[in-house]
Amino acid sequence: MAEDAFTEHRPLLFTIAYEMLGSATDAEDVLQESYLRWRTVDPATVRHPRAYLVRIVTRQGLNHLRAAKARREEYVGTWLPEPIRTAPEVSDDAILAESVSMAMMLVLETLNPTERAVFVLHDVFGYTHREIAASIGRTEVTVRQIAHRARRHVHARRRRFDSDSDAARAIVERFLLAAATGEVQALMDLLAPEIVQISDGGGKVVAARRPIIGRDDVARFVLGVIRSTAATTRVEHATYNGMPAARFLTDGELDWLVAFEIHDGRITGLYGIRNPEKLHLADTVHPLDRGEPQPWKR
């Protein structure tokens, strides 16, 4: 049945849509639209349901991405992807963990919609240039050129990080303890010299509107935030976007979320999301799946 096929491949379809859009809300919209289109297709005419569904999601995702690009140009402050809560096993797939990380999602945001779709489908999900060309309505030669350009762009800007692990979570715990107790040197020892802190309030809540770069400035910022945090704030550990994260709840409500980028035992990136519109799905665990490439034929 059509519904059974869609449900079976939903984790893969969501993963593709999210990596194309950087928004779980938009990804869910794409899946809803794709499902409605899929319901109009006679399943008996489709030899490879998963591949056919990927094609539908890709086209719907491109439509949404083009519209989102215009909206994000007017975004107040720094834009960060809508965080998704991921199961710990996502970190076991190095390619998947990197592809949904905050750092990679920000790099993907610098690509144009077609470049982003091609890069995601080819480099993350392993589809061939010919298969992608059939999906986005371009020639195979053109897709190959787009893929080369996008890959060069991404590789020049990607940041190295370690996936969520016991060691990474231990560093986060030490960071939170040092920040809470005001132990400046202990905090500084955990931060890489070139650390970048990015906040996203969307103009709706108080948040730094520009990235903060460098160990000294980031340490001052963190200690200032902790001092201003309400006494009723509770901290929970979690995994978001394949990265160790901390959830800050005030009076039982999620107030902000911080994802930690860690490399070689030091924190190299802090990604703080406070925009309430991006936190409303933060309690939902999203199953992610890269699947195995299949032919794009019906």
Automatic annotation (TrEMBL):
<dbReference type="InterPro" id="IPR013325">
    <property type="entry name" value="RNA_pol_sigma_r2"/>
</dbReference>
<dbReference type="InterPro" id="IPR013324">
    <property type="entry name" value="RNA_pol_sigma_r3/r4-like"/>
</dbReference>
<keyword id="KW-0805">Transcription regulation</keyword>
<protein>
    <submittedName>
        <fullName>RNA polymerase sigma24 factor</fullName>
    </submittedName>
</protein>
<dbReference type="Pfam" id="PF08281">
    <property type="entry name" value="Sigma70_r4_2"/>
</dbReference>
<keyword id="KW-0804">Transcription</keyword>
<feature type="domain" description="RNA polymerase sigma-70 region 2">
    <location>
        <begin position="6"/>
        <end position="69"/>
    </location>
</feature>
<comment type="subunit">
    <text>Interacts transiently with the RNA polymerase catalytic core formed by RpoA, RpoB, RpoC and RpoZ (2 alpha, 1 beta, 1 beta' and 1 omega subunit) to form the RNA polymerase holoenzyme that can initiate transcription.</text>
</comment>
<dbReference type="InterPro" id="IPR013249">
    <property type="entry name" value="RNA_pol_sigma70_r4_t2"/>
</dbReference>
<dbReference type="InterPro" id="IPR036388">
    <property type="entry name" value="WH-like_DNA-bd_sf"/>
</dbReference>
<dbReference type="InterPro" id="IPR014284">
    <property type="entry name" value="RNA_pol_sigma-70_dom"/>
</dbReference>
<keyword id="KW-0731">Sigma factor</keyword>
<dbReference type="InterPro" id="IPR032710">
    <property type="entry name" value="NTF2-like_dom_sf"/>
</dbReference>
<dbReference type="GO" id="GO:0006352">
    <property type="term" value="P:DNA-templated transcription initiation"/>
</dbReference>
<dbReference type="InterPro" id="IPR014303">
    <property type="entry name" value="RNA_pol_sigma-70_ECF"/>
</dbReference>
<feature type="domain" description="RNA polymerase sigma factor 70 region 4 type 2">
    <location>
        <begin position="102"/>
        <end position="153"/>
    </location>
</feature>
<dbReference type="GO" id="GO:0003677">
    <property type="term" value="F:DNA binding"/>
</dbReference>
<dbReference type="Pfam" id="PF04542">
    <property type="entry name" value="Sigma70_r2"/>
</dbReference>
<dbReference type="InterPro" id="IPR007627">
    <property type="entry name" value="RNA_pol_sigma70_r2"/>
</dbReference>
<dbReference type="GO" id="GO:0016987">
    <property type="term" value="F:sigma factor activity"/>
</dbReference>
<dbReference type="InterPro" id="IPR052704">
    <property type="entry name" value="ECF_Sigma-70_Domain"/>
</dbReference>
<comment type="similarity">
    <text>Belongs to the sigma-70 factor family. ECF subfamily.</text>
</comment>
